[in-house]
Amino acid sequence: MKLSIKDSKGNAAGELDVRFELIADGRGTQAVHDTVVAYNAAQRSGTACTKTMGDVNGTGKKPWRQKGTGRARAGSFASPLWRGGGVVFGPKPRDFSKKVNKKVKSLALRKALSERLKSGDVVLIDDLKIAHAKTKDFVSVLQALGLDGNTNLVVVGAADKAAYLASRNVTGVELKTACLVNTYDLLKYDKLVFTKSGFEAVEARIAK
Q1: Residue 191 φ/ψ, nearest 5 degrees
Q2: CA-closest candidate to residue 45, choices 84, 81, 94
Q3: Which domains does the chain have, with CATH numbers?
Q4: How many helices (H) and strands (E) does the chain have?
Q5: Which of 10, 61, 75, 204 is the most exposed place for a label (fewest CB within 10 A)?
Q6: What ranges in 43-134 are assigned the alpha helix state H?
Q7: What is the pLDDT of residues 110-136, one digit of tens each?
């Protein structure tokens, strides 16, 4: 498969051969599902915490004697039945992360990129040259590529401070280096914009 390369002004700048074999329909779907579920689970902080009877601050004295008052028996001021008492089966801090094997992650990344390539959602540019860290310069590149109005993931080969500063205020746009891109990122956005070096770096990750 060949991809057309454009420059920052939207003009044709050559072609690039996709070096990995695209995954056929049906294979890798479960890997994508498992990887995305694990990614979303890992984003959960797991810090929700409620107090049990033993955690509630207060005296351990019995509210009133067992018999003779005409009231129901009560053994603790921290009873879950009382206002301010403990919580029964409430959430406690926990780790929501799920384990996914390296091979499954690699398959999922390859599957996700294959599907986006088949759908024509990948745009390749020779280089993202932002002379000054200004938002209007970055937006002009998106407009030249016909991508303004979409949500876009921009993948570069190496960290570029000027490009990062110019893109961070653009709504619906995220800029990432190739080493940090994951399966969820490839599925989340309308269009995937790769620099030539960024795409080759992701290909190298898939080939490992």
Answers
A1: -130, 145
A2: 94
A3: 2-44+99-207 (3.40.1370.10), 45-95 (no CATH)
A4: 6, 6
A5: 61
A6: 102-118
A7: 999 999 999 999 999 998 888 888 999
